[in-house]
Design goal:
single chain; 7-stranded mixed beta sheet; 22% helix; 20 strands; 482 residues; alpha/beta; elongated; 4-stranded antiparallel beta sheet
């Protein structure tokens, strides 16, 4: 069923033109004039003045003004109404639909924010829960869709605890939940009732798209994990028995501030760091930029969510790169690939360390390659003072950064990069420890010396108080016998 624009009659007082101005002044003084609609002429040469339906019982008219009560079947919106935000328009349309049943309780139950996916609007789970809404049936969803300029409507619930970040979304109006987004020139399609879309981490996506990957083979160990900021609430699964329920942390919207759609629920206290693991969404957020923009010759994408696999297949075809990617359906920790990759993406937070042994196995044994390691790193409560850090040659070098202490971005050049000098000590220590850990894994795997060099520490964003999402670009090369 699709939304229909069906006019809803509004009450109005009709009078002769010579009394119209006096009646208008009286209604304005008593706050009874409905400013959402224009005064309009009705049959018989009379003028109709819309009035607020909920206040009809308060109507007291001067006896010298002859008038009568009618219903305007096709009311004309006023100029002010045409300037309404979608949130205001939605509330007004619902007030009209409910009439005398409207209450402050229902007003609080009307959403102030939502997500727009083309002609589909996705509502939050905490709206339209009051009992009176159920009595309206399909008319409610048709009114909501019409007010928001949508043809389809859905409502989300908590992400399902199935280990695959599956959204719990109910389609309220329309035939299916398939939508399409364009992000940095790449087309993404997915079913909102089955998968999530991440508009976040755009700087990292742009950086990946600019990497010189021509002729390279990529392995994306977490194609399903690519995004970290969502159209849906970020959900943490906590193994701590005292915190064993899923908790909403934050919600980011890609909609426009002026539309009344950007606001989401405020952030709540973060997860317990010892037990919680982020369950992010994904449909190939990094796999596609590597193929479409960075010109990788071939990609192996690991995905264990069947719904995301279907979306990824469609996305590869939409962007014309389906012949340059093989999807490995299943747990990436069980990946049987070896000795194939020039580059490995490990886009899982808070830590991708569980995938490091797999990444080492898939790197080309003879030439090695580059690992892009995502990780959440805790920092102290105060930014560290600027410093000039020089690492050992075995681990690369650091130089240049912005005045705010954040690492500056430069293009990868010839497989060797420099890194901003003003990095926080915790970031540097984590990068050095990661480089040593990976080097040990490679030596153990191949029985010969390997060199690991830090090319870059990319600060993606502040993830939570004193926690930063970083990406370490780590070059791994076998050392030739002397």
């Amino acid at each position: 069923m699709e939304a229909r624009d069906v006019p809803i009659p509004v009450p109005a007082l009709v009078t002769e033109p010579r009394f119209a101005q006096r009646l208008r002044e009286h209604l304005e003084e008593e706050q009874l004039l409905d400013g959402r609609y224009r005064l309009q002429e009705v049959p018989g040469g009379r003028v109709a003045l819309p009035v607020v339906e909920e206040k009809l019982s308060q109507l007291r008219l001067p006896q010298e003004i002859p008038c009568g009560l009618v219903q305007i079947q096709d009311p004309v919106p006023s100029r002010a109404a045409r300037r309404q935000t979608p949130a205001q328009k939605l509330q007004d349309e619902l007030r009209r639909l409910l009439g005398k049943s409207w209450s402050s309780e229902l007003e609080r139950d009307v959403p102030r924010a939502w997500q727009r996916h083309g002609d589909l609007v996705l509502l939050s789970e905490d709206c339209f829960r009051a009992a009176p809404w159920e009595k309206l049936g399909p008319a409610l969803w048709e009114t909501v869709a019409s007010a928001l300029g949508a043809r389809r409507l859905a409502r989300r619930g908590w992400v399902l605890p199935d280990g695959m970040r599956s959204p719990n979304v109910t389609l309220l109006l329309g035939q299916d939940g398939w939508v399409e987004h364009v992000d940095n020139g790449i087309r993404y399609t997915f079913d909102v009732t089955k998968c999530m879309f991440s508009p976040g981490n755009i700087t990292e996506k742009l950086r990946v798209a600019s990497l010189p990957c021509s002729g390279e083979v990529l392995v994306d160990l977490y194609a399903e994990e690519g995004g970290m900021n969502f159209h849906f609430p970020s959900i943490w699964a906590c193994s701590n028995p005292e915190q064993s329920r899923f908790r909403e942390l934050r919600w980011q919207s890609a909609s426009h501030p002026a539309s009344g759609e950007e606001r989401g629920p405020p952030a709540v206290p973060g997860p317990c760091p010892q037990h919680c693991h982020l369950l992010p969404p994904g449909i190939g957020y990094f796999t596609l930029p590597y193929l479409v923009h960075a010109a990788a010759a071939f990609a192996h994408a690991c995905e264990w969510n069947g719904h995301a696999v279907e979306a990824l297949r469609r996305n590869l075809a939409l962007n014309g790169v389906q012949d340059r990617c093989h999807i490995h359906y299943g747990d990436s920790r069980q990946l049987e690939l070896r000795d194939v990759a020039d580059r490995v993406n490990l886009g899982l937070i808070p830590s991708s360390e569980e995938g490091w042994p797999v990444a080492c196995r898939v790197l080309k044994k003879g030439t090695g390659g580059v690992l892009h390691i995502h990780h959440n790193v805790e920092t102290g409560p105060s930014p560290a003072p600027p410093q000039t850090a020089v690492l050992q040659a075995e681990q690369g070098s650091l130089e240049g950064a912005g005045s705010d202490g954040e690492v500056q971005h430069s293009a990868e050049d010839g497989g060797k990069e420099t890194l901003g000098a003003r990095i926080r000590p915790e970031w540097q220590r984590w990068a050095e420890a990661a480089a040593a850990r990976v080097r040990g894994l490679l030596v153990e795997l191949h029985g010969q010396p390997w060199r690991t060099s830090i090319l870059r520490i990319e600060a993606v964003k502040s993830y939570a108080p004193h926690v930063h999402h970083l990406v370490l670009d780590l070059e791994c090369r076998p050392m030739l016998p002397t």
